[in-house]
Design brief:
The protein has 198 residues and is an alpha+beta fold. It has 3 helices and 10 strands, in the order E-H-E-E-E-E-E-H-E-E-E-H-E.
């Protein structure tokens, strides 16, 4: 059992701003008829939410085609790392925000598992960010330039994102680029977009 999802992650909102930003986004989605304020746990497979907003009467305006009835929209606040695809939990690489050197964790196609010696300090920094949001432990040091930077400043692959506000569309037909662009515009921040299956 499981379902497909599409996710939009706000990459810049802070933990303190997330609840208010989520409320504004839901107000807009309800006004547009994309979702309702009613929530339901049916077809909800999010690891961060037990229920989500029920699709509204105009949900089809958010998708490329309306081939099937969508499931709920989970709105997740709180610092989390998010991974697209199916079952992955590790990043392939990260790019230093100071010197633009790429640190590779998984050397595809030679390997499909991360080099633990390289990935472990980054994973630890991500876990520290999720737990506290700040502090020296939430920094990762570049092996090339020696600069320790917040993990949220590093550039991650498209399928790996750190964010304090996330919208998970469970069982929806593919979202349209226009809809995602408008949601991003209303959030006022850079976003990441994932697809995957749980």
């Amino acid at each position: 059992m499981g379902d497909y999802f599409e996710r939009v992650v706000d990459l810049e909102v802070t933990q303190e701003e997330a609840a208010e930003a989520a409320a504004r986004a839901i107000d807009w989605l309800v006004t547009e008829g994309i979702v309702t304020r009613e929530t339901d746990a049916s077809r909800m497979y999010s690891i961060h939410a037990d229920e989500g907003h029920v699709p509204g009467p105009r949900w089809a305006e958010a998708v490329v085609h309306d081939g099937w009835e969508p499931g709920p929209l989970a709105v997740v606040t709180g610092r989390h790392h998010h991974v697209g695809g199916q079952g992955e939990d590790d990043a392939e690489y990260a790019v230093c925000p100071h010197c633009a050197t790429r640190t590779t964790f998984i050397d595809y196609p030679a390997s499909f598992e991360p080099d633990e010696a390289v990935w472990a300090p980054f994973r630890t920094a991500v876990e520290a960010w999720e737990a506290t949001g700040a502090g020296g432990a939430a920094r990762a040091t570049c092996a090339a330039c020696g600069t320790a930077s917040p993990v949220t400043d590093w550039q991650w692959p498209d399928y790996y994102a750190l964010g304090a506000l996330t919208f998970e569309f469970w069982g929806w037909p593919p979202l349209s680029d226009e809809f995602v662009a408008e949601l991003t515009r209303r959030l006022g921040h850079r976003t990441a977009r994932h697809m995957g299956k749980f």
